[in-house]
Design a protein that fits this description.
The structure is a single chain. This protein has helices spanning 6-11, 13-21, 70-78, and strands spanning 2-5, 26-30, 33-38. With 81 residues, the protein is α+β, with helices and mostly antiparallel strands. Strand 2 and strand 3 form a beta hairpin. The mean pLDDT is 88. It comes from Phyllobacterium phragmitis. This is Antitoxin. Antitoxin component of a type II toxin-antitoxin (TA) system.
Length: 81
């Protein structure tokens, strides 16, 4: 694996990132001591991706959902009539 010092990494960052993205990871060192390893991020597989409707059938919404709490809300805004 290729090792570069911080100055070289700053100077050639775009080129180094392109190589890492293509599968050529590298190490950035400071004063000869390895500090970080730069590797490409792997895209999640399609089966791991979240999808809409993943909880379908696991709960139900009441028929009066859009009217729930009407009297309490009316009371808060308008008080006793």
């Amino acid at each position: 694996m290729h090792t570069v010092n911080i100055h070289e990494a700053k100077t050639h960052l775009s080129r180094l990132i392109e190589k890492a993205a293509k599968g050529e990871p590298f190490i950035i060192a400071k004063a000869g001591k390895a500090m970080v390893k730069v590797v490409a991020i792997e895209a999640p597989s399609p089966r791991d991706a979240r999808r809409v409707g993943f909880m379908a059938g696991q709960f139900t919404v009441p028929d009066d959902f859009d009217r729930m709490g009407d009297s309490e809300i009316d009371q808060l805004f308008h008080g006793n009539k």
